[in-house]
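Quick illustration for those who missed Monday's session on complexes.
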Amino acid sequence: MPDSLAPEAVEPLLGGRFGRPYLYEERCESTQRLLDPDLPEGAVAVCDVQTGGRGRLGRGWEAPPGTAVLCSSLLRPPPERRIPELSLVGGLAAAEAVERATGLAAQIKWPNDVMLNRRKVGGVLAETVEGAVVLGIGLNVNQTRDELPSDSTTAPGSLRSVDGVVRDRAPLLADLLSALERHYDRWREVGLDGLYEGLGARDFLRGRRVFVDGRTGTGIAIDRSGRLEVEIGGERRLIESGEVGFER
Ligand code: BT5
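Prediction with biotinyl-5-AMP bound:
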């Protein structure tokens, strides 16, 4: 029996303002498109299967029906905050939710991947819509190995493929939303600095061999402004956005 993310399963578990309102559809093109920017901050859209799930830069996001957490939250960050930092805010909330669910350490691969056992188990997508931000989070929960995408550059995983446990998604989603609310509020107040301890401790690329624009270097760290510092050819560089590969 697949577990449920319908409102009757999730709403009783929500303790904060995220998930109010909670919009659920069994099937949709993308949860990124379900949120009217006029809804209150904290409105959340969830579905069981996306027919056009989106990643960054025109890429897709794939998950078989009923196996994943697919959610989008409506945010109205103050103008002084940098929107790309929200991928790290969402990534930290997702990594912590994964840790509480599995008891294993999760990491954040700059700028938006949630990693467990060196596999990508989640991704975050921040999109601006009419002055608001829609922050999408996809977490692979109950996919078997065969159900994970085969064409990914970063090896994919799910919580189940890592620890063999099949889980109810509703408590995981509720925990994710409560962590997101807490971290978002802190970020709103003080910026990324307020989350730096949690981020720095989970920085997947720190000390790894990385590939940037066809060159090999070493990951130094996510800095306090959310950029990635790398060393390439003896020089330190700060990367604002884009893609960084790593040696497995
Ligand atoms: C991301 O993009 O990682 C952001 C993914 C955000 C998905 C959520 S789900 C809820 C909300 N609604 C949406 O439509 N989107 C958001 P990016 O870094 O571009 O990674 C995309 C790449 O990851 C793809 O090109 C694939 O190679 C790979 N991929 C696709 N599905 C995956 C999955 N389930 N697990 C791991 N990797 C995947």
